[in-house]
């Protein structure tokens, strides 16, 4: 074994010589030559290196890099005690904390027991990328060159799949508006609507059919690809105000875990503006256009070739149809399109045909099954002695679920609440019976007047 006393002086001599050479190089060798020398030395060493590095930038042009987002989500789950700095985040109502590597940190991952990948997060403050960002972030994956195909074809797709599951665990459904003045096109807030299909007051048969359709849609990736159709689905919700159209939309979003994108057609200036906004929507989202019959006066297709309107809004019916059912509709996957209206008969038939609005859901006045659901929601009742009387009145009176819910909320005592609902239904029944004879009398008078004019003629 070498003598320690002999080794230490030798190490000190080598270190002193290295410092002397460095000092001489700094004093007598120009910077340009030194940089060229070290750069060449680095390139030579790279040629003989057995490792390959993949750089994953945060942005691809102006678009977010999906692989970067996936790497950030996945690598955060691998945090080990060896890390010195990690980033933790949580948005309001988000289910779990989000953990990510901080800049300069490195972590090692072993894939399929033999592929070792060293990952690190880097930041380049010098790349302003068209002055939109003060810094660009990236992840670097380093591994042996012999595993290149395995990493590209198996490891990275694995990270993408794992990140999707992680995002689902953390995801909170959001309500978004597509704003043309925002840098990235949307404004969003958390959708704190607690409505679910279990709580939804609507006809049980319609609810079951809709749930089955939504589940088939969500799991229909291979089916839609096999039949050659865009992976989208359209629903038309129609019925009088207060029948639960907005609650149904919230229940659909919570069931699918999709964000809602509300679009005000009155704020859209042209067909091209409409196209840009819809293309800003991501996959797995719900496009909602409420009160489509009165939100905007869509130009009739027969008049679109005439002189253009001088008004602010020039969205045409054909422009809307092309985006929900034309080639542009194929640019995203898993998109739900929902139109709502109080007057289905006012809509252009081209807007409601199958392929655009695949299901027409009648949000009717309160039914017996809807009442029972409301009674259970508000008072935990499945049966009560007053149910039979209430059900008889509901079958005779046009009353919305919102009106029934309003009466059930007036008292926490079930007996008092149900009796108040009976009184409300009786009063509403009397009002409707009074209106009916007046309408009949008016029609009769018009008929008599018309007959008198015909007899005079």
TrEMBL record:
It catalyses: ATP + H2O = ADP + phosphate + H(+). Residues 231-367 form the AAA+ ATPase domain. CDD domains: RecA-like_BCS1. The keyword ATP-binding applies. The keyword Nucleotide-binding applies. Keywords: ATP-binding, Hydrolase, Magnesium, Nucleotide-binding. Its cofactor is Mg(2+). Pfam families: AAA (PF00004), AAA_assoc (PF14363), AAA_lid_At3g28540 (PF25568). GO terms for molecular function: ATP binding; ATP hydrolysis activity. It comes from the Eukaryota. Residues 437-457 are annotated as: Disordered. GO terms for biological process: response to stress. InterPro entries: AAA+_ATPase, AAA_N_dom, At3g28540-like_C, ATPase_AAA_core, ATPase_AAA_CS, Mitochondrial_chaperone_BCS1, P-loop_NTPase. Belongs to the AAA ATPase family. BCS1 subfamily. PANTHER family: BCS1 AAA-TYPE ATPASE (PTHR23070). This is AAA+ ATPase domain-containing protein. The lineage of its organism: Eukaryota, Viridiplantae, Streptophyta, Embryophyta, Tracheophyta.
